[in-house]
Amino acid sequence: MQNKLNLELKYFCSDFLPIRKILKDVGAKKIGTFKQKDYFFNLPQNKKVPQRLKLRIQESRSTLIYYERGDFSMISKTAAKVSLLEVDDKKFLDFLKKVLGIKAIVIKSRELWKKDNTVFNLDTVQNIGRIFEIEVSVAGDADKAKREFNKYREKFLPHLDKIVKGSNLDLVLKV
Predict the structure, then answer these.
(1) Alpha-carbon span 66 to 82, nearest angstrom
(2) Gap between the Cα atoms of 37 and 73, Å rounded
(3) What is the pLDDT of residues 106-159, one digit of tens each?
(4) What is the Cα–Cα distance from 110 to 125, expressed in whole angstroms?
(5) How many other C-beta atoms can be found within 10 angstroms of the C-beta atom of residue 175?
(6) What is the DSSP string of 107-134?
(7) Which among 85, 86, 70, 84 is positioned nearest to 7, based on CA atoms?
């Protein structure tokens, strides 16, 4: 199991073309474009920060993802505690459906870019639209991660629309 702490932001984005240009200018590399289906499960909410559990199916891989993250804010970075577990058992989805129940399913196409410890997601979410997300992994030097996060936020912000305060789950539940 992998545990990590990210600094994140998430915005609606009507046009990915200027985003791709900036990504190339800063030296980010396109990893690929993937179809993803996220099954979100019902969880008791007993902490101050919302908790989410999802099983992501991407091609032949399944990853169980648990995370705690508050709403995104215009004025600051948002920290997310994330735990990832690769799952091989094809019956695992049925098990989680039975035990926890499905809250919602999010279907998207994800264009994934990377630069050092930063991941950039250009998502097209079914019934929602285009969303741009930055995830800076805090591995070691937290101050350096904050500086990097702020640098990227300033570069991309002029090309972004309204902030997405919650998760894709929250958006899908409103549709």
Answers:
(1) 6
(2) 26
(3) 999 999 999 999 999 999 999 999 999 999 988 777 888 889 999 999 999 999
(4) 8
(5) 8
(6) EEEEEEEEETTEEEEEEEETTTEEEEEE
(7) 70
For strand 102-115 and strand 29-41, is the pairing parallel, antiparallel, or unpaired? antiparallel
The helices-and-strands tally (H runs, E runs) of the chain is 4, 8
CB 54 within 8 A of CB 100: no
* Nearest CA-CA partner of 79 in 4, 171, 12, 156: 4
Residue 166 tokens read as 């919650």
Q: How many residues does the chain have?
A: 175
Q: How far apart are CA 63 and CA 91, in angstroms?
A: 13
Cβ atoms of residues 51 and 66 within 8 Å: yes
| pTM of the predicted model over 0.90 | no
Structure tokens at 10: 């998430």
Our CA angle for 57, 140, 52, nearest 5°, is 30
Residue 162: count of CB within 10 angstroms of its CB: 9
Tokens of 66: 């648990």
Distance CA 126, CA 129 (A): 7
Domains of the chain: residue spans and CATH? 2-174 (2.40.320.10)
